[in-house]
Sequence to fold (340 residues):
Amino acid sequence: MLKQNKISATVSRTIETVQQEAQYDACVKRLLSEKIILAWILKECVSEFRRFSIAQIMKDCIEGEPTVSMIAVDQDELDYMEETVAQQIEGMNTEDSSIREGKIYYDIRFSAVVPDTKEPIQLIINIEAQKSDKTPYPLIKRAIYYGSRMISAQKNKIFTKSHYEKIRKVYSVWIQMNVDEEKANTITRYRITEENVAGAVTEKESDYDLLTVIMLGLGSADEAENEPILRLLDVLLSSKKKPEEKKEILEKDFNIPMSEAMSEEANVMCNLGEGLYETAYETAYAEASETTALKTQANIVLHMMQTKNYSMEDAFEAIGASETDLEKIRELVDAQLAAK
Fold:
């Protein structure tokens, strides 16, 4: 019963952590999707908007309202699946959740237009927030995939048939929190450039400069004085700074008034951040306790084998180890025997 209670407590902590992380992620996305925050990101990260003021970018450049976790990365594939299923089953609701289950969605996506040009430049912008750069794959590859999907998804929406001249440039901006020291307070840009290997052929830059990925590694706001966007995001997304402190810095240094909605999100995020820390500590403590208990049992088994000539199976039976722990204890015993 004690073992069952321990498992139940671990499962409960895991569920609580997942729920808190989901709420935390949602808060981050809602804060980043505020138009004034997007305007700062555009001005500081996207060269086409560098010469415009924050107010002008908000008013004249950001088109409509940004979508948050609504557009699938493989949206065209998803649309095709829904259309096919709808045709196969007459009258079926194409918003069937089973079709969309497991799909990956862009965190934030919106369109922006560059004014004051002979022909308006229309861009598709994607903002992604990552709690950590610890992924089982190179994050830059995922970022390039997202950008590539934003280009390919324009077929039959932005352009049809062979009208490739209508393809819009895309930006994918990745905001990484909790990165290693060497990545902290960094901005890295990846883009398509022209290189003359032989000869001197020159294409119009706007015809090939169609995909840019920007990686922002956040660190300490105090160490990002020379890069306004890093300091802004460090402050905005910090789970350590209190809402009142964020409000003071954002209004004083960036002229960003903290609306009631933003203040509420910041407050929730701070509380969730503290909760995640406490839950992580409890989980780590529980896991450490369990590991210590298993090591103790393994030492007892080894002692019985060496001093009383017990077989491993008899020793297991004597200590009353549970079925779920047997394999772990066996591995610990084998490791100790191999080390002798």
Summary: The first helix runs from residue 2 to 32.
